[in-house]
């Protein structure tokens, strides 16, 4: 049964963050708050954990559109090809924030993502999510816990999320109520930014 760990976004307890990181390092799956909907994530370097997430979502791992959640832009060079100045300026303006940016993948992507031409990068404006990634030392691969269920509380209320997911994941982080709006997805791999999905993030950053 999953641990239920309460964290406060204005001041996440390092001791509780360590508990979450410990689970991620052992290949566990974690549900955690972001600046949009709650996310289901695992350590980017753990292939077994990545396969578990793909299975839950019912997709093949190499075809899965998971985001890489980073705590700031410093991880970018590990996963993304050299980006030009205009692209970097958009990222600087928008992040941290409720956006997923599609960027050209680099050769140093983890093995399971090697064939990917592009990657989706997130730097959420949520202290809990960023503190977890920072303490882990590398990004979390993440997907939202979208629910076919019409009861939206299941994806926003941490206690209901726990009730539903306690036997599937290893930790549910209670960071308060989540949002129902997904992130805005913007493709920056072509000459002009292309909005793939309009979500919570404003398009004024472009």
Automatic annotation (TrEMBL):
PROSITE patterns, sorted: YRDC (PS51163)
SUPFAM superfamilies (alphabetical): YrdC/RibB (SSF55821)
Domain YrdC-like: 14-201
Family matches, as InterPro entries: DHBP_synth_RibB-like_a/b_dom, Sua5-like_dom, SUA5_domain
Single Gene Ontology MF annotation: double-stranded RNA binding
Domain of life: Bacteria
Cross-referenced PANTHER family: DHBP SYNTHASE RIBB-LIKE ALPHA/BETA DOMAIN-CONTAINING PROTEIN (PTHR42828), THREONYLCARBAMOYL-AMP SYNTHASE (PTHR42828:SF3)
Name this polypeptide is given: Threonylcarbamoyl-AMP synthase
